[in-house]
Amino acid sequence: MYGPSVFDEIRPALLRGLIDAHPLGTIITHGDGGLDANHIPFEIDAGDESAPFGILRAHVARANPLWRHVGEALVVFQGPSAYITPALYEDKKISGKVVPTYNYAVVHAHGTLRAIEDPAWILALLGRLTARHEAAQAAPWSMDDAPSDFIDRLVTMIVGIEIPVERMHGKWKVSQNRSQNDQRTIESAMDAPMAQAMQRRSA
Q: Please, are residues 12 and 23 in contact by the beta-carbon 8 Å criterion?
């Protein structure tokens, strides 16, 4: 990923925070047929000594050949993004030498994919994902709400995937290259997610 150093982000906690807030990842692999991309919601944990950047976990349909992939995978997580109009820059009034741009935050996570077919592992993952994504519902749905034989049958139709993250790189292009006055003006014009991304980057 091209990135001038001013936009680089390598703090693991901030990178994992973006993944946690925006869990739908685009996983890119390369095989005999060329490049392939799949879009999958992940969870990430803090990892351990063997995976200092964390461990990504998800599941796919057994019919999806992704789980049979051997080798490195790249998972891209897209955080908030926003168009930035030149009207927000001080230089528009002074020299007019300004152009539009786009602010965004992204994380690239690299690691070797491994498949997990253990039903207990898959059920535990499904339970965590469900609890996490249902938490905001007025009456959260639980897997216990469905017949157990129905859930057991579905588990046989999916495969878990796990990616210990070996490298992680973030790019926070959030107007760091602009003056402090421009940054304040831009932040005040942004919606909450982008404003928060700007604040986190400067923390």
A: no
Which residue matches tokens 């990616």? 163
- Per the CB < 8 A criterion, the answer to whether 89 and 98 are in contact is yes
Strands 24-31 and 72-84: antiparallel
Using DSSP, state whether 169 is helix, strand or coil. Answer: strand
Whose tokens are 């996570």? That residue is 109
Residue in this structure with the two tokens 């150093």, named with its chain if needed: 5
Kindly report, residue by residue over 85-143, the tens digit of the pLDDT: 999 999 999 999 999 999 999 999 999 999 999 999 999 999 999 999 999 999 999 99
Give residue 51's pLDDT band: very low, low, confident or very high (50, 70, 90). confident
Distances (CA, A) of 23 to 46, 57, 129, 147, 202: 15, 10, 10, 28, 23
Rounded Cα–Cα distance for residues 191 and 164 (Å): 33
Among candidates 106, 105, 81, 108, which has minimal Cα distance to 27?
108
User: What are the tokens at 197?
Assistant: 């991304």
Cut 0.85: pTM above it = yes
- Secondary structure element (H or E) that encloses residue 57, with its range: strand 55-61
CB-based contact 8:108 (threshold 8 Å):
no
pLDDT (average), residues 10-31: 95
